[in-house]
TrEMBL record:
The organism's place on the tree of life at top rank: Bacteria
A Pfam family this chain is assigned to: PaaA_PaaC
BP terms from Gene Ontology: phenylacetate catabolic process
Organism: Fictibacillus aquaticus
PANTHER family, sorted: 1,2-PHENYLACETYL-COA EPOXIDASE, SUBUNIT C, PHENYLACETIC ACID DEGRADATION PROTEIN PAA
Protein name as catalogued: Phenylacetate-CoA oxygenase subunit PaaI
Length: 264
């Protein structure tokens, strides 16, 4: 980094990376005890723990860049300061974890699979980043991400080629996720500076890689490909969010806010 604008772009990128994993891991943790079977309960919990660890790596880098303590960055920011994609904060379904949860497993599979494909592509770019601490973190995360992607791809392919009911639910979930997955694929207002500094590849290049991968899987499983995904409910990279994020952060920060000695 040689200029304030490059540092600012790097900080924006790190917030996106951290917040994406942090919020989606939280939504995944709400499935504890509710997954389709005990083996999946254990596997999903392990994936969520890994993702929280990935978020922590990015928050630690932000701490090193002067953004404050990692724990405070994660737990005490206002919702408008978060840079996660809106889709990732969406609730799992009707009800809450403690009161009549009626969560949608098809939505969980599609959201996590699409995100895992993108995360793998993004990490492959980040491992060549000119900011070496970020490149090192990406290389470390990739060793776990390989298995996360394999897990969700297996679920996705099995369900979209299963019973009529499974296919119907998966098609509905794909349509739902497609409406907002464009928010995951964008790098936000500072993306040109991120690319210029060689922190990450151009967002259009990353998007095309994701679409090519997803289209191939759709063709393999007989699904119609709908073109470029949309971003209907706001751009989280600009701090635009839904009440779902406010609810999630209130729960996530509850313990830390009352006992700041609690850490990762």
């Amino acid at each position: 980094m040689t200029t304030p604008s490059e540092k600012g772009a790097l900080i924006e990128l790190l917030y996106q990376l951290a917040d994406d994993d942090f919020i989606l891991a939280y939504r995944g943790s709400e499935w504890l005890g509710l997954a389709p079977h005990i083996e999946e309960d254990v596997a999903f919990s392990s994936i969520n723990q890994d993702m929280m660890g990935h978020a922590n790596l990015y928050y630690r880098l932000l701490e090193q860049l002067g953004e404050g303590k990692a724990d405070e960055i994660a737990h005490l920011r206002a919702p408008s300061k978060f840079r996660n994609a809106v889709l990732l904060e969406e609730v799992n379904g009707p009800g809450t974890y403690l009161e009549k949860p009626d969560y949608d497993w098809a939505f969980a599979v599609v959201r996590n699979y699409f995100y895992s494909v993108h995360k793998q592509i993004r990490l492959d770019s980040l491992r060549h980043s000119d900011f070496e601490p970020l490149a090192e973190a990406a290389r470390k995360i990739m060793t776990e991400q390989y298995y996360h992607l394999m897990h969700w791809e297996l679920w996705f392919k099995q369900l979209v080629t299963s019973t009529d009911e499974a296919k119907s639910r998966m098609n509905a979930a794909i349509e739902k996720v497609w409406r907002d997955f464009g928010g995951v694929l964008t790098l936000g207002p500072a993306y040109a500076e991120m690319v210029k500094a060689n922190f990450i590849d151009d967002e259009n290049v990353l998007k095309q890689r994701w679409m090519k991968r997803i289209e191939a899987v759709f063709n393999e499983t007989g699904l119609p490909f709908s073109g470029e995904p949309r971003m209907e409910r706001g751009n989280g990279r600009k701090g635009e969010h839904t009440p779902d994020l406010t609810q999630a952060l209130a729960t996530l920060s509850e313990v830390y806010a009352t006992n700041p000695q609690t850490g990762w």
